[in-house]
């Protein structure tokens, strides 16, 4: 039974993503104390070399273990090729020679994939944002990592056309955003859009919403002062004012039009 402190072995190398597998196998072999044997030359017993920490037998034993570990993490097709190699250094050098150059071409492909990536409206935006995050992580593993601020800006710029207004609102925010907050904002926006689309696609739900809104408007109208029999119609009628002649200031009867008396 494996202990919790045991190193985690890498997956078997199948010819793809060599740089990633090489980093994992380096960590694995270093944890086992075997990786340095690849670059050490075998000790010469005829010469007195006190700096050597192991004799020839110990060197052969470690090299045998290291060679076996490397072979065990190759797929069957690659195992058949490299099982004839005598030392771990021979296997390591040949793998780097063949797949290291091939992996350099994959670096350019990963960079091109990131630059040309564009989100579409036909797929969930959150899933596409995660795909772009995976590509950025792949670039980091290949030594072409970008800063998080640049990743956030690129993700916003690659949003689908229907999200143009949402993207502009994010660009106008003053505070800095992280990928975590950006993905959270995209998820909330997508849920909001899905809810709106659900209402549009469900006529019964839309009719119910309109009915409730209509009831609210009717309730407001009944409570307004313009309702029939409301406060405005209960006002007392104003009595006509008596007309006053400006010359003598005598009252004018509003009924017959004569001066000096009032009806």
Can you describe this structure in just a few lines?
Residues 223-249 are annotated as: Disordered. The chain is mainly α. It has helices at 18-31, 56-72, 76-82, 88-116, 125-141, 148-157, 164-171, 179-201, 203-222, and strands spanning 243-244, 251-252.
Descriptive notes:
Strand 1 and strand 2 form a beta hairpin. Strands 1-2 form a two-stranded antiparallel ribbon. It starts with 17 loop residues before the first helix and ends in an 11-residue tail after the last strand. Helix 2 (56-72) packs parallel to helix 4, helix 4 packs across helix 5 and helix 5 (125-141) runs antiparallel to helix 8 (179-201). It is 55% helix and 2% strand. Among the domains are: 8-44 and 52-102, no CATH class; 117-203. The chain has 9 helices and 2 strands; from the N terminus they run αααααααααββ. It is mostly helical and 263 residues long. The mean pLDDT is 78. It holds the Pfam family zf-CCHC. InterPro entries: Znf_CCHC (IPR001878). Residues 252-263 form the CCHC-type domain.
